[in-house]
Design brief:
about 325 residues; single chain; 3-stranded mixed beta sheet; 3 strands
Length: about 325
């Protein structure tokens, strides 16, 4: 049958993550506007293709914040007959669009510019201006990342998980995208500083070109990881193992549930989960009692896993099951 979780476990916490995610997106957007202007200014005066690639990186990040904020806004729409489960997956879709945009508009251009300069190198000028701009950008990115990280840490603490565990397992691609983008931006700036610095020190502009290629590869990897997570949620990812354990615990604790025949879950949004289960009730339970027991079971499930917003339970008693088996039907 079903199994019990370890002792000491209990209902999962109820977390509304929309406001914190919205704040993180707005902070990242505002920071990226300033940083984009700084990077392109530095690229213009220094002639650094790596700094130009970083400017593109910030442009992509800025547009991505728009996509992510759009997903946050559109998911609030109420359910309609055409979309009876609501619009919670809007956040998954726009996070996926952001991942594609990172690759199409950032990674490809950075790789192209880097390869072109490697094949046709030209010296840098006003290097200290460029390095100063990159240093300023790094500080701004760090401040923006700090805000996003604090939101991630607060949610991890609310769920009793480590920051890394929550980061890997959470179902909010919007916050994940912002945190990853801000972290990757700092790595990209470090690569650009190394490329510009080595080019000036050794007199070889190909280090600058290599830095641009490195930033392009970084953006490619970032786009792949974000797209992979969003795709999984879009095509019907189920509940986490922790949530499944809680659901199974509730079924196991119900004395009238003799067997769980089927149990299916699906993420309808970052904090919205669907459950459909086919249950086999005790043979001494009448058809009239089953309705009350189903109401109790649904209430217990909602308390144990607050993300469960849509619950569909089908129950049968022994008499119904035996009748189906005689007719050759499956249960």
């Amino acid at each position: 049958m079903v199994y019990e979780r370890e002792s000491g476990t209990g209902p999962l916490p109820r977390i509304d993550n929309r406001e914190g995610t919205r704040k993180a997106v707005i902070v990242a957007f505002a920071g990226n506007l300033v940083i984009t202007a700084a990077k392109f200014t530095g690229a213009y005066f220094s002639g650094s293709v790596a700094m130009f690639a970083e400017g593109l990186h910030s442009v992509v990040d800025t547009f991505n914040q728009v996509f992510l904020f759009l997903g946050l806004a559109l998911q609030e729409r109420p359910a309609t007959p055409q979309h009876p489960f609501g619009y919670g997956k809007e956040r998954f879709f726009w996070s996926f669009v952001a991942a594609i945009f990172i690759f199409a508009s950032g990674a490809i251009v950075s790789l192209y510019e880097g390869i072109d300069k490697w094949l046709h190198p030209h010296p840098l000028h006003n290097v200290f201006w460029g390095l100063g701009t990159l240093a300023f950008s790094f500080v701004m990115e760090a401040l923006s990342f700090r805000v996003c990280y604090r939101e991630l840490k607060a949610r991890a603490q609310a769920t009793g998980k480590s920051v890394m565990t929550y980061f890997v397992t959470n179902n909010d691609p919007t916050l994940t995208a912002v945190v990853v983008e801000e972290g990757a931006a700092q790595i990209g700036i470090a690569i650009a500083i190394a490329g510009v610095g080595l080019s000036a020190w050794l007199g070889d502009p190909r280090f600058d070109a290599a830095a641009s290629i490195g930033i392009g590869l970084l953006l490619t990897y970032l786009a792949y990881q974000l797209g992979k997570r969003s795709r999984s949620l879009l095509i019907g990812q189920g509940a986490s193992q922790e949530e499944l354990d809680e659901i199974q615990r509730v079924f196991a604790a119900a004395p009238f549930v003799e067997k769980v025949i089927d149990c299916f879950t699906m993420q309808l949004g970052p904090d919205e989960l669907l459950l459909a289960a086919h249950l086999y009730f005790n043979r001494d339970l009448s058809i009239y009692d089953m309705e009350d027991r189903l109401d109790e079971l649904e209430a217990d499930l909602t308390r144990a896993v607050p993300a469960l917003k849509r619950i569909f339970l089908e129950a049968e008693n022994a008499e119904t099951v035996e009748r189906k088996l005689k007719r050759g039907q499956t249960i």
